[in-house]
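Q: Got a minute? One more chain.
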Amino acid sequence: MEDKVDLIWNDTEKLQNWLESLDEKKFLDEDFNDFKDIFLEWETQDSAIRKALKTPQLLSEYIWHTATESEGNYKPKSIKLKKKLGEGKCWTVFECEYITDGSVYLTACKKCKPGSDEDFNVEIKTLRKLSHLFVVKYLDVVTMNSEKFIVMELCEGSLKDYAEGNLKEIPKDSLDEKILLSQVALGLAFIHDKGIIHKDLKLDNILLKRQSNRLVLAKIADFGFAKELKLGKSEFSQTKHAGTENYMSPELLKAKNGVYPASFASDVYALGIIIAQIALKGEHPFSAHDSWRIISMIEGLTPQNLHGLRSELIDLIRKLTDKDPKKRPAMVLVLHHPYFVLTNDRTIKRFVNQFWDGLKLILPRGDHTKRVMPILYEKILSNQNFQEWYDSVYDEMPITEKEKEEMGNTLRMFKNLKPDITCDDLYPDKEYVNIIKEGISSEYDGIKNYVKEITSLYPSGLSRYRLYKLVKRAPTFLVPYFSSQLLDLFPIINTQAHNNPLLKTSSQRNKDPESSKSSVKQHRLEIVSELEWSSTYYDDDEELIDDLWNIKYAGHNEYSKETIKEMIRTLEKCTVSEKIWSALLNWNEIDFTELILAAVNSHSSNAPKVTVNCKLVHTKM
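A: Always. Here it is, folded:
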């Protein structure tokens, strides 16, 4: 069945034609809508089959239909190799022509080398689960001359090409480093949200796809080493693949006997190295000298070559590459770091909206919350807490005797490589801390009295608008401060956290696991959609956002119920053109009431006009 699974799930047109040809009276006990949703919303093969077995007659009939379909009506898929694009230890990638249903598409295809079948199958399985604008798009698996090829979208280059100045097919003026890196961060957050560890994140494995003259997308690729975690887990105690040495975290480099403790945190460390390399134009943040670089990474040192970077960028890299994997932030928190938030007014506004949603969770509601929650509220919004955070968050902890001994041993080791090395050269944290504090201190004194005025009016004096105006007065101080408080507002930050009994009430613990998961999900930081991301970073550029909308949603005949819900949620938070709204208004698949509510709630500047058009359409109906 595994080799034939594409015949069952991936051919939407075939499924739709078959369903339309059926006599529904023959299947009185079967739910056609459930069956269609299952086959049009791919999860995993095993999961989909289990769900499809709820409609056994339809499932068996469809499998029989695909197995006995006349070959005269079937046009085999094939590829024609054009040129080699790249090569690794386990694979070779070609540019190719992908031929399906008589049409020819220019794509990339990946062939595994002998002995790498297991990694190849892992990549196929993983890519089928990851549908995201910032993950390379999987198209098909084609067999040619007894060899399997993964067919994927063709990209024009990689972050490595960009960092090294070898990107030829994409104009430099169409690239923005912060936007590219935020795309990578969002893509990795999505992958982690699916419970998957990439394990080989590096510049080479982040591809660049040119969609138009102004729109370039970063795509995470190469999932041959990826691993999916079991529910409730956040790391592997052992795995046979470590990744690429220049991007490996200290715990991976120190691992013995080929047993590597891969985790979400090890992916986060690799992302920190990538961000530093982009900022340093391809240079490694430790050293170009192999021995120096590897020893520094094994010892878990702070990257030594970050001088000259902006304070928020230094802070982000330091956090992502922390020696202790438990101190590295989860990806959902990385997206709220000041480096990404302080991009433009809309990114700040979106951050304030998220923070306000968290504050609403702890505002007084009922007797219990009146007693407990105001304590946390006052803690977050008080001058005393501001002062304590400012005084302590970047202060160095006292160095213990054991740490002094370790630092001395490390310094002696490095003197063999560079005799004139000093302790400050090897441990630049003091200098970094001063740069960061200078970046936030200039605004602090100016807002003390204003904060006191706002908080003295608690609880009625604060509003979303006032919180936004407060942040706008001192963004380089308040954004990092509020970012540091997100864990208090959203204690559940990982998709696996619903398994922790300490985070549930007694009533939740007695519920069905799936309903419990759904309930908990409402009170955690959620991964922003690609289009909501674009709406904030591209600052209301309707043309670019429409391009992304069409890339994500156009060209499909059918959508699952969940996808339609996602589209409506996206419409509420993004700015799409009236053309997109008009197309949706004339689409019977979307509930009219939900659509007009999305228009009313929308952040879009054209929402009032869209709402009027909704009313006109509804009147005609």
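A: The first helix runs from residue 5 to 9.
Q: Perfect, thanks.
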